[in-house]
Amino acid sequence: MLLFGKFYQLYSPKWVYLIAIVIFEIGSAVCGAAPNSTAFIIGRAVAGLGSAGAFSGTVIIIVHSVPLRKRPMYTGLMGGMFGIASVAGPLLGGLFTDKVSWRWCFYINLPIGAVTLVIVTFLLRINIPRKSTESLTMYQQFLKLDPLGTLCFMPSVICLLLALQWGGTTYAWSSGRIIALFVVFGILLIAFIAVQIWRKEEATVPPRIFVQRSVLSAFWFTICLGSSMMTIIYYLPLWFQAIKGVSAVKSGIMNLPMILSLVIGVIMSGGLVTAIGYYAPFMIGCCVLSSVGAGLLTTFQTDTGHAKWIGYQVIYGIGLGMGMQQGSVACQTVLSKADVPIGSSLIFFAQQLGGTIFIAVAQNIFTNKLTSGLQHIPGLDAANLAQVGATTIRDLVKDPNTLRLVLEVYNESVVKTYYIALAMSCVAILGALTIEWKSVKGQEKA
Hints:
Blueprint: H1 2-10, H2 13-33, H3 37-65, H4 71-99, H5 104-107, H6 109-123, H7 138-144, H8 147-166, H9 176-199, H10 207-210, H11 213-243, H12 248-254, H13 256-276, H14 280-297, H15 306-323, H16 326-334, H17 340-374, H18 382-387, H19 393-396, H20 400-427, H21 429-434
Helix pairs in contact: 1-17, 2-3, 2-6, 3-4, 3-17, 4-12, 4-13, 8-9, 8-17, 11-12, 11-16, 11-17, 11-20, 13-15, 14-15, 14-20, 16-17, 17-20
């Protein structure tokens, strides 16, 4: 996403957006036709690259098409579509897998992407100043993309994720592999920061943009909120599958209260920010409600009823929706239009990075808690049961008393991950309280 932010700053947003969609389509086609796991992984990587560009590009197109005072409403609608897609995607995926083939989970992107390409190509009109890169050679343009910074940053993130994923599960935290990964991550991160300071305006993330008060606050707020959101989105369906004994598709349906309330919160807050001008109050409200909702989710027991798991999801979802798009709106308000691509990409990157890191952290906590808890249940193959899917627990454990103990361990293990979401929702308030109180109704920076 950070690299695409640079592309959107240097080149025509329309054509960068179209190229991102084409890359996503190619990746989807490779995934659908993949003859083996290697081809599938490559396809996923290509599709992920394209989706990163398309996701951040949507905001850039809104920036060039809509005046600042109206953008919160449009970004709210975009966030609402994201919420709806979060529900529709897994449900359609399950339907395709059951009724047709898993390959159609990827093939379905091809006609949708083709229609999008036609609409954007012929209907989108963006009037932007002539880009400074048009007079540069290919090599000069390549240097403006900060290849050295990218070469430092991407491996550093990979090392961090591998360390968090493997530490305490595949390898001990004291293992040489894990220590080496953390050391390489630290060295590469320091190198990336040094490159950004050295490159200044030609850096992937120019320091003057990152240290701007609202951008820095929005980055912290968004990375915390993304961590909380993705942890709950990932582990709430697992609770339904393990504790309530439902299928993967049914667990997605039971997750609807949170997603629908999130959509309502995003659209409602977008409209209200457009009306009153200020986004900071909604960021504070987001932290309060999402913290309360996440805190209530940590009270889940094996016998928690419908009223509670629906109500708690609604509180958390509305809180999440209130703040989901505000970091991007803040960047658009305080940055010049030329800097918005970098700022917006930075915010969306924060959201994805936070989710990716803390899902790995949550997975580590969940696996360790589950394995240690199951080992205390007599007559049980703890290692084997910890590796099977949540939907197969009742098929493997027939004794009612043993099943009750297993479900209690599963409940405790899943709920432990909710504490991560609670903590991240709470510390997000630091970003909400330190952000500048600017109005989207003010004069937009050139």
